[in-house]
Amino acid sequence: MSEKSNSIVTYKWIRYLSLIFLLSSCEDSRRQYVPYDFTELAMQPGMTVEAINKNGKVTIEYLSELERRYRWDEFDETRVLIPRKERWLGMLGAYDPADAQPWEIFAPRIVAEDSQLHFDDLEDLRSWLKQGSSVLDWVYTDDGFVVGFARSPERNQVNIEVYQLYLNGKKPSQLDGSQPDKLKITK
Predict the structure, then answer these.
(1) 36 part of a folded domain
(2) Conformation bin of residue 151: beta by default, left when phi > 0, alpha when psi is -120 to 50
(3) Which stretch of DSSP H or E encloses residue 125?
(4) 147 contacts 61 by C-beta, under 8 angstroms
(5) CB count, 10 Å around CB of 26?
(6) Distances, alpha carbon 10 to alpha carbons 4, 17, 91, 103, 150, in Å
(7) CA 120, CA 55: separation in Å to the nearest integer?
């Protein structure tokens, strides 16, 4: 292959890769960057939460209405959550589905949730806490502030979930199994 042919092939590859990069870095114009009036979030302005469970220690920091900073081990990642348009599994908060970008191949994907959950009776609330506890190892306070943290190395994924539970429209006053010593909440 001649030098001119090599240059043409190289130029075509550069254009192709530039186009891929440009398309993957374009923001989705349909994405909502502010919560809806009806969005139900657990975290409040200025809040920082540090949680320790069997999977390690994670820190979640409220940066803005939908922006959160997640820290664990040597990782320090900021994400903009997507507000839900309608209830999904009882949640009307905000989430990050862990859409990985090509340049993030070395960092774990973060699947995140920040939401309120409303229960009509204590049995439903207890059942919800039990169903996810084996993986996310919930740590929570008596007033129903819940954090779950799990690692899936085989998927290069980390799940970080934050909830404020409500029972009949109010925060609970005492929950069996609460571990407030494993949660440090600053406002």
Answers:
(1) yes
(2) beta
(3) helix 122-136
(4) no
(5) 8
(6) 10, 11, 49, 21, 43
(7) 31
Q: Is 183 in contact with 146 (CB distance < 8 Å)?
A: no
Q: Which of 151, 144, 141, 125 is nearest to 182 (CA)?
A: 141
In a domain, 106, yes or no: yes
d(CA 182, CA 185): 10
pTM as predicted: 0.81
User: Does residue 2 belong to any structural domain of this protein?
Assistant: no
pLDDT of residue 184: 97
Q: Which residues contact 96 (CB under 8 A, 6 or more apart)?
A: 79, 80, 81, 82, 110, 111, 112, 113
Per-residue model confidence (pLDDT) at position 103? 56
**Spans of the chain, pLDDT less than 50:** 17, 19, 21-30
Position 167, amino acid = L
- Non-local CB neighbours of 54 within 8 Å, separated by 6+ positions: 137
Tally of structural domains, the chain:
1
Question: Does residue 4 sit within a domain?
Answer: no
Q: Which residues are CB-contacts of 50 (< 8 A; sequence separation ≥ 6)?
A: 57, 58, 59, 183, 184, 185
Structural domain of residue 97, as residue ranges? 30-186
